[in-house]
């Protein structure tokens, strides 16, 4: 389940964890902290997350922040992930953004930068979700139109290929003709 106000922060530096956590709590975020990937995966088993701020180098040989992000996406497909690092190595930024649509921040940063990034990413996610919902709705409507055309063809094969506008025009003409005929008969009679 997606909850954009719940943030997972994973960093092997307790001072950074505390600083970021306190700053986000002040801005009404619910924060889950972990000092390593295994602890993080254990803590989020029953959580609902919307955001994750993961250190690239977690001091854990088997899993770095990108690997953890991939594992988290399996459980939370709509999760917004930001990889943070103290290194200015563009290689990791390109890998994270290209392969996994992760965002990337270089330490040190301010809390308002994190919040701004998450707000933009949340808005983007909302747009994608709305776009997907609208595509599904269009598909359903197209299927309904197809079904109705099929029914119409079975009932009145000669009218099945008429458009709605053409059918409406035809009905209006019939009504005008009937009104004209009635008017003529009243004048004559």
UniProtKB/TrEMBL annotation:
Give the matching SUPFAM superfamilies: CheY-like
Question: Mind telling me which PROSITE patterns this protein's record contains?
Answer: RESPONSE_REGULATORY
State the coiled-coil residue ranges: 124-151
4-aspartylphosphate modified-residue sites: 55
Record keyword Lipid biosynthesis present: no
Keyword set, alphabetical order: Coiled coil, Phosphoprotein
Q: Single Gene Ontology BP term?
A: phosphorelay signal transduction system
* Response regulatory domain sequence ranges: 6-122
What PANTHER family does the record tag this protein with?
RESPONSE REGULATORY DOMAIN-CONTAINING PROTEIN, STRESS RESPONSE REGULATOR PROTEIN 1
The molecule here is called Response regulator receiver domain-containing protein
Which species does this protein come from?
Caldithrix abyssi DSM 13497
- Give the source lineage, highest ranks first: Bacteria, Pseudomonadati, Calditrichota, Calditrichia, Calditrichales
């Amino acid at each position: 389940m997606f909850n954009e106000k719940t943030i997972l922060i994973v960093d092997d530096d307790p001072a950074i964890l505390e600083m970021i956590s306190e700053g986000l709590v002040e801005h009404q975020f619910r924060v889950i902290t972990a000092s390593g990937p295994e602890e993080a995966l254990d803590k989020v088993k029953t959580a609902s997350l919307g955001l994750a701020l993961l250190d690239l180098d977690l001091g854990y040989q088997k899993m770095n922040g990108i690997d953890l992000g991939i594992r988290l996406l399996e459980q939370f497909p709509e999760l917004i992930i930001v990889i943070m690092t103290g290194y200015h190595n563009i290689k990791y930024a390109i890998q994270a953004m290209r392969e996994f649509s992760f965002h990337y921040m270089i330490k040190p940063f301010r809390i308002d930068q994190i919040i701004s990034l998450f707000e933009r990413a949340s808005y983007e996610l909302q747009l994608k979700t709305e776009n997907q919902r609208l595509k599904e709705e269009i598909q359903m409507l197209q299927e309904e139109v197809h079904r109705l055309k099929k029914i119409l063809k079975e009932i009145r094969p000669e009218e099945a290929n008429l458009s709605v506008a053409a059918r409406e025009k035809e009905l209006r003409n019939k009504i005008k003709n009937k009104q004209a005929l009635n008017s003529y008969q009243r004048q004559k009679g």
